[in-house]
Amino acid sequence: MEHKLPTLSYELGELEPYISKNTLEFHYGKHHQAYITNLNNLIKGTAFEDASMEDIVKHSEGGIFNNGAQVYNHTFYFEAFKPNGSAEPNGKLKEAIEDTFGSFDNFKAEFSKAGATLFGSGWVWLVVDTGGKLSIMKTKNAGNPLRDGFKPILTMDVWEHAYYLDTQNARPKYIENFWNIINWELVVKRFEE
């Protein structure tokens, strides 16, 4: 099976001023595409040639894992954006966030702090365990919560290529911008599936 760059549900310039068209041209158009190209080349003739992305993330190692997880992580990240995103989730996810973190604002502060304090490159995730409990998880490099039995529902990329063209080394400004373009309807759907 050949993996392809997924089509975005928005135009590259529609996330401005929070994420620029220039950043998306590089981050989505070049970085994400490079992981897909590398993965397609690496899986030829292996047990992962016809595997799903989730199976690649859960069971592969080395270069196949690194590229496969980055394909999964980036797809998951870009899918959760929309122009003029909603301010916060509703329904059962909102209740679960309030039960776990005390309030949506507390969750937002904890998630943001996790992103600001992750040393080096990686990802911050809102995940659900097998009992339905929410938590925030940080992973290094291409790390993904699926490998630890968690279901991810939201992620923030804190590799420098996600924000350097827009905010240079100001990761906190990127994190602040992140909250303005979340498609909470999609995140709620992921939680309820």
The SS-based structural class is mainly alpha
Distance between termini? Answer: 26 Å
Write down the domain tally.
Answer: 2
Count of distinct strands: 3
Global shape: globular
- The name of the CATH superfamily of the largest domain reads Iron/manganese superoxide dismutase, C-terminal domain
In sequence order, what are the helices and strands, one letter per element? Answer: HHHHHEEEHHH
Strand percentage lies at 5-15%
Radius of gyration over all CA atoms, rounded = 16 Å
Task: Characterize the biggest β-sheet.
Answer: 3 strands, antiparallel
Give the rounded overall mean pLDDT.
96
CATH-level-2 architecture of the largest domain: 3-Layer(bab) Sandwich
Percent helix range = 40-55%
CATH class of the largest domain: Alpha Beta
Short summary:
By secondary structure, the protein is mainly α. The chain is built from 8 helices and 3 strands, in the order αααααβββααα.
Structure explained in plain terms:
- Residues 2-81 form the Manganese/iron superoxide dismutase N-terminal domain.
- Destroys radicals which are normally produced within the cells and which are toxic to biological systems.
- This is Superoxide dismutase.
- It catalyses: 2 superoxide + 2 H(+) = H2O2 + O2.
- Keywords: Iron, Metal-binding, Oxidoreductase.
- By secondary structure, this protein is mostly helical.
- The chain has two domains: 21-80, Fe,Mn superoxide dismutase (SOD) domain (Helix Hairpins); 91-192, Iron/manganese superoxide dismutase, C-terminal domain (minor pseudopilin epsh fold), CATH 3.55.40.
- It contains eight helices and three strands.
- The protein has a three-stranded antiparallel beta sheet with strand order 2-1-3, with helices on both faces.
- α2 (53-59) crosses α3 and α4 (91-101) crosses α5 (104-117).
- The two termini are 26 Å apart.
- The model has no long low-confidence stretch (mean pLDDT 96).
